[in-house]
Write a structure and sequence with these properties.
This protein is an alpha/beta fold. The chain has helices at residues 8-13, 37-45, 61-72, 169-176, 195-202, 214-224, and strands spanning 2-5, 22-28, 46-56, 77-84, 99-106, 120-121, 135-136, 141-142, 157-158, 161-162, 185-188, 206-211.
Length: 225
């Protein structure tokens, strides 16, 4: 496990002379930023069999699709995943925005996807309509994960308040379990409170995390100890 305090672009530049060795990159990025330098650097580090995830919302999803299609090639686009959460306020002037978008790309054709690790029950399970054992592959709309409550035991606090933008382990499980094996290396260039690192420790994966906020970095480091 390697934790790096500092700007992710500067940190990633330091890896550039190393042979590409990262199996999966998950970037829960700054949603309002159009600085894609971290994407270019991550692409260089990603194995030819690697998977790249970027999580964003309506602010930048269109720009990311255009940029990633040009970088990875449209033929290596795998999914536009919808991570649905319905807690919080609701506008009465438009349909409430209650999801993030997670773009999934492969660097090449020889990538892993072990779908049997993330099967979920069918609605028809244990009925006469069930012909295939009651389980199915989750679709690209993650509406079965439920809300990540502000009162969840997983929540990490800073100065008595929940750290913003924290993601739950069940989301990491959905994204990372099918595309990695034990010993694989996962890079999170926006580490935050370290959820990706916690998942890696629990599932015997190697982890590299980068975080720019000093306080949040030290909180994540203590958690990961």
């Amino acid at each position: 496990m390697k934790l790096i305090l500092g700007d992710n672009v500067e940190a990633l530049i330091n890896f550039n002379n190393a042979k590409a060795r990262i199996d999966v990159i998950y970037g829960d990025c700054i949603y309002e930023s159009f600085d894609f330098r971290w994407v270019d650097l991550c692409y260089t580090l990603l194995k030819d069999s690697g998977i790249f995830y970027v999580q964003t919302d309506h602010h930048t999803v269109a720009q990311y699709i255009i940029y990633l299609n040009s970088l990875f090639g449209e033929e290596n686009f795998l999914n536009m995943l919808i991570y649905k959460q319905e807690w919080g306020g609701r506008s009465k002037r438009y349909f409430p925005r209650k999801h993030d978008t997670i773009l999934m790309y492969a660097k090449g054709k020889d990538y892993k996807f072990n779908y049997e690790r993330i099967l979920i029950p069918k609605v028809t399970a244990n009925t006469a309509f069930d012909k295939n054992g009651g389980m199915k592959i989750p679709c690209d709309v993650f509406d079965d994960l439920g809300n990540f409550s502000t009162m969840s035991n997983e929540r990490v606090k800073k100065d008595g308040k929940n750290i913003q933008w924290q993601k739950p382990l069940k989301l990491m499980n959905r994204l990372l379990l099918p595309v990695t094996d034990e010993g694989d290396i996962i890079l999170d260039p926006f580490m935050g409170s370290g959820t990706t690192g916690v998942w890696c420790k629990e599932n015997n994966r190697e982890f590299i995390g980068i975080e720019n906020d000093h306080e949040v970095f030290h909180i994540a480091r203590e958690i990961l100890k």
